[in-house]
């Protein structure tokens, strides 16, 4: 297959020839036998690598399945996902890993499977499997109640370091949460201004202190440490000033939404770590734009509408995002501060490099033909009902997004955005 006249992220117009699963050449005036697609100078990006999704199987297929989650990924130009361990059973033993791998057989895109840490985890059998990373290791409770104490975290970081496996950490220190704000969260309706109590409760200081401590532990152990969903500029700065072995990700929602949006979002805007002040959001996003934060990952955490439509304390934490990450960021190249190159680096090149995925994240000869084509003249309002996640809603309702016309995974068209159709489930384990 040959994709002719594609504009690459750096502005060059090139032909991209695909031979089987790989990109075989990037150049001008290339010829090929077989299918020829004229990109007509539309934007061709490497498929995004989302290092943080929750696909909910096994255990909660009513929220999401590997089939629906990976369709949502493909329809958003994401061709590799990394699934987190807070499923049921939690992915904390070799047997639980195997069970998740069976579910992942339904994946349309390539994937990694993380291993979790709880007091009853079984590091021997778990680390015997090709875990993508240990994590997200929860330093405070979130969905799945997998919060652990500092000693167990330290032990897990040492084991991971010895096994040569990276650690990703959910860093919040629950001892620094604000109990008064939690009481207010319990008294309020969860709607309008009341929804802000969750942000007051899981205060920014709790994240900053936990990131500081986690980085210390990671550096002492000589581990590869990746801090999940950093939501404060202070936390990003701690990571940026640490050795190269320490990296962080930022979510689209922490870049584009703040406490000011909670009036509209209500309990649907409850997530961990929570939305921050408009001032912190702007400073965080600025670090993403300037490249001080390493990469973007979605923390795609679907819950049903019915589950979210309750009181603030009863609503589960988390928002979906795997399908809207690249579309939102591309819209930000039109009337926001990002460039196509920065979007490529944040969503594909850097996550692939960070997690040693040698054949992912770049449009170059020899790489996997994971590609998505975008027409920047066709931004459209994001509608939760048109997305492919099982949850059927989005915190970004009505915002502009540039969705892919098609998405390829290793040379196979897994999503056709014009027809609205999907390919078959051929995703493979990137560590398998
Ligand atoms: N981010 C969230 O608020 N929720 C995540 C768990 C997590 O990433 O902490 C979930 O699995 O629902
Ligand atoms: Zn988390
Ligand atoms: Zn998460």
From TrEMBL:
Q: Tell me which UniProt keywords the record has, alphabetically.
A: Hydrolase, Metal-binding, Pyrimidine biosynthesis, Zinc
Q: Which family does it belong to?
A: Belongs to the metallo-dependent hydrolases superfamily. DHOase family. Class I DHOase subfamily.
| Transcription regulation found in the keyword field | no
Q: Which residues bind substrate?
A: 54-56, 86, 303
Q: In which pathway does it act?
A: Pyrimidine metabolism; UMP biosynthesis via de novo pathway; (S)-dihydroorotate from bicarbonate: step 3/3
For this protein, the record's SUPFAM superfamilies field holds:
Composite domain of metallo-dependent hydrolases, Metallo-dependent hydrolases
Cofactor note text: Binds 2 Zn(2+) ions per subunit.
Name of the protein in question: Dihydroorotase
Domain Amidohydrolase-related, by residue range, is 44-378
Q: Which GO terms describe its molecular function?
A: allantoinase activity; dihydroorotase activity; zinc ion binding
Report the record's Gene Ontology biological process terms: 'de novo' UMP biosynthetic process; purine nucleobase catabolic process
Q: Specify the species.
A: Haloplanus salinus
Residue positions binding Zn(2+) 1: 52, 54, 136, 299
Top-level taxon of the source organism: Archaea
PANTHER family, per database record: ALLANTOINASE (PTHR43668:SF2)
Question: What biological function has been recorded for the protein in this entry?
Answer: Catalyzes the reversible cyclization of carbamoyl aspartate to dihydroorotate.
Q: Which CDD domains match?
A: DHOase_IIb (cd01318)
What gene is this protein translated from? pyrC
Documented EC number(s): 3.5.2.3
Q: Which reaction does it catalyse?
A: (S)-dihydroorotate + H2O = N-carbamoyl-L-aspartate + H(+)
Q: Name one GO cellular component term.
A: cytoplasm
